[in-house]
Amino acid sequence: LDFFDFFLHSMNPYVSFSFLNYILNIAFLCLLMIKKDLFPLKFQLIGGIVGSIAFLILIPAFTIILEKDSFANRFITGTLVVLMGFINALCSGGFFNLVSYFPLEMIVSLSAGQGFSGIAMNVLQYIVLLSINSNNMKDENEKKRIYTIRGWVFFSISSLILLLCLILLLLNYNSPYFQYYLKKSKESSEDEATKGLIEGEENTDNKKN
């Protein structure tokens, strides 16, 4: 968040961005819980990851390009953070929906993976901070250059990790192991809303018929 604190200091990003991201993430997750058939499962997974990659590129790009601490910068970046809260909810909700079709150890693995990813991101942040230091710099343009490099390094690595996750998801989604449990859950489920996560629009069409 020091990247945003430099470019958008008046927004107090340590508080405002955390609030926007986490609170809205929870709100959108609750919405997805209520409207279970709002999005098909595959769209939640793939759309969530692709959307996250897009926002990890767009947010630092607009933050850097627009005038530092300007109203346009605060408004556009804040709006993108709000939208990313929805994308995060879509993605995390999709993965929790996915593992609910599998044996219990998959749910445990997902929780462990989330914890590990949080640790990994913090470690990455500290590595970037220590390797690209700006504490002793007084020139504003030089500081901006350093914070720009920091931001792109951090967000680029995060995007590459998500891209790897997307590739692995696409490779595994149509595998016999995945399809066996998805088909098994679909056949045994009596809840049409749950079926809609897999069938998507087909569920809506069946209701009309």
Q: How would you describe the overall organization of this protein?
A:
With 209 residues, this protein is mostly helical. The chain contains 9 helices and no strands. It has helices at 2-7, 13-34, 41-65, 71-99, 104-131, 140-173, 176-188, 192-199, 201-208. 22% of the residues are buried.
Give the C-alpha Rg: 20 Å
SSE string, helix = H, strand = E? HHHHHHHHH
- Tell me the overall shape: elongated
**How many strands in all?**
0
Distance between the termini: 51 Å
DSSP helix fraction: over 70%
Pick out the low-confidence regions. 192-197, 201-209
Q: Number of DSSP helices?
A: 9
Chain-wise SSE layout:
Blueprint: H1 2-7, H2 13-34, H3 41-65, H4 71-99, H5 104-131, H6 140-173, H7 176-188, H8 192-199, H9 201-208
